[in-house]
Amino acid sequence: MSLVFLIGLSWFFAVILGVLDGRRRWVGWLSVAGLTAAFAGVIWLSVLVLRDGTLQMVGGDWAPGVGIVLRADALGVIFASLSTAVILAALIYEVLDGVSSRMFPSLMLFLATGLNGLFLTGDAFNFYVFFEIAMIASYALVAYGEGARQIRAAFIFATVNLLGSVLFLIGVAALYHLTGTLEMAEIAVRTQGVATVPVLLTAVVIFVAFGVKLGLFPFHFWLPVVYTGTRPAVAAVLSGALANIGSYGLLRFGGEILVREREIGATALLVLGTASIIYGALQAISRRRSSEVIAYSSIGQVGYILIAIGIGGPVGFAAAVVYAVINALNKTLLFLCCGLRGWLVGAAFVIAAFSVAGVPPAGGFLGKAALFEAGVSLGSPAGAIAVVVLVFIGGALSFVYMFQIYQRDFWAGEKEGKASPLALRSVALVLAAMILFIGLWPEFLLGLSRQAASVLSGGG
Amino acid sequence: MTLLLSLAIAMLFGAGATLLMKSDLIRIVVGMVLISNAANLFIMASGLSRGFAPLYPLPEGALVSDPLVQAMTLTAIVIGFSITALLLAIAYRAYLDLDSVELDELEEAEEREESEQEKEWRPF
């Protein structure tokens, strides 16, 4: 019951807000209140799940196997809490800054609804439906601001991601045809008995669909245009919350449902991940505008997640979760800092920069360390050395581009001008504090990620 | 039957993909419509059984067609329809801003804007 209620809560607020004028201050704060309630619900659910194990329910009291299954496990609730937190931060930021479009608060809540539903469902087709709810909200959000740049970004974003969604839909239909069920757990069991080749083809289609969402190397072409075109708050949501669909989808489908196919494709994942890291970092170094640098940096950072998934096993999946969480927080903070001026912004930015480069005590160090561990767990010394070298080179390159931005924007005084209101800057500072907290108390996130990896059957 | 369906799906997808390469916003939208219909047809084709419509009363021992794929296709059609409306709305906004539905011209407008920004940029 609680699962439906949780998803319904933000939905309810989204619909109510849809008929109100979001530019009014009280409407903005109402949306913050609604999302805070949803966030509290997600946290409560996470506590329940992490303490008692996976919660499951079948919609409409149907018999299992007939109705749609909603399922909250450790992996799902971690991503749900992360995404809701990021959306909440961006929403507060924008409400403090002054919302300029009446639909903005409502769309943010629809996005939260779609994301939470997607992370908490156990049914492949239901996954697609929530996925589309989140995507449609984000297509409209990219156009927020409604200048020519935003409109163009929205069109490109919608077209490319729609193509990704259609591919995913085809993948789901193919899985249904091969296994005769849409329930994820059941698909995982039944694919074992099906010939490898058709399932492998389906797995490739699904991988491409999530690769487009994440902005992985060969499917990244839309990303810089969109991230630099939209407003900072929207870019923060896209990279901090929406991109989680990609990492969650790869973990869920690769780690639990298509286990055998992930193992076959592991080499391809490692190669693509490496290409993403190198390409993203080199492009980021050669760019000048800070939002562009951060956009290319996101292409590079998701490469690490892909490598961790490619390595697989309990250590690899745990590393992927750790990296996905930290990367989402980093990117949210960086994009929000892009729109800010004044002192303390530099401090928040430096924490995010250290985190991207993997320098302790910022949280990013933990992600890199988890990846090192995963690399060592590979067994073959050559593979371990390759991963360690790659993480080191990637970290060094990201250090260079992050400090190029810092030098330009905060030392050379390019961003001089009126300081942003303290309230806005404090949103960035809270995020920075979270990243520091993760770095200073690593047991918390490491424990969570281990629990998340243990629900993936490939992690056993 | 399977061959016919796959040919139809392939043609729809191919035609849609070709339209996506055009620089006219409206053609891109139409291409998206064709591609999402190719996906709809694919879902229908992935049904597990064929036969009578799954409605009671049924003739004794008759095979019924798979109702689940039809439910899925219906959902996908609704989603595809709403996304088409959204894409058209975005294209219309672009047209209002620039009096054009060419992606190239949108790009030119953006480059102009960007070069103005670059003028303000100075090396440190």
What integer is the average pLDDT of chain A? Answer: 87
End-to-end Cα distance of chain A, whole Å, is 30 Å
* Structural class by SSE content of chain A: mainly alpha
What fraction of residues of chain A sit in β-strands?
under 5%
H and E string of chain B? HHHH
Radius of gyration of chain A: 21 Å
Secondary structure category of chain B: mainly alpha
| CATH first level of chain B | Mainly Alpha
User: Largest beta sheet of chain B, briefly?
Assistant: none
Q: What portion of residues of chain A is helical?
A: over 70%
Taking all Cα atoms into account, the compactness measure Rg of chain B is: 22 Å
Strand arrangement, largest sheet of chain A?
Answer: 1-2
What's the number of structural domains of chain B? Answer: 1
Biggest interface reads:
A-B, 34 and 38 residues
Shape of chain B: elongated
CATH topology name of chain B, in short, is: Helix Hairpins
Q: Average pLDDT of chain B, to the nearest integer? A: 84
In total, the number of strands of chain A is 2
The beta-strand count of chain B equals 0
Beta-strand share of residues of chain B: under 5%
Overview of the molecule:
The complex is a heterodimer of chains A (460) and B (124). Chain A is mainly α and 460 residues long. Chain A has a domain at 260-460. Chain A has helices spanning 2-18, 25-52, 74-97, 104-119, 124-142, 148-179, 184-191, 196-214, 223-229, 232-257, 259-285, 290-311, 313-338, 345-357, 364-376, 381-411, 422-440, 442-455, and strands at 55-58, 69-72. Chain A has a two-stranded antiparallel sheet with strand order 1-2. In chain A, helix 12 runs antiparallel to helix 13. In chain A, 63% of the residues are buried. Chain B contains 4 helices and no strands. Chain B has one domain (2-120): Helix Hairpins (Orthogonal Bundle). Chain B has helices spanning 2-20, 25-45, 67-98, 103-120. Chain B has 124 residues and is mainly α. The longest helix of chain B is centred in the middle third of the chain and has 32 residues, at 67-98. Chain A binds chain B through residues 125, 129, 132, 136, 139-140, 143, 146, 148-149, 151-152, 154-155, 158-159, 162-163, 166, 169-170, 173-174, 176-177, 180, 182, 288-289, 407-408, 411-412, 414, and chain B through 20, 25, 28, 32, 35-36, 38-39, 42-43, 46-48, 68-69, 72, 75-76, 79, 82-83, 86-87, 90-91, 93-94, 97-98, 103, 106-107, 109-110, 113, 117, 121, 124.
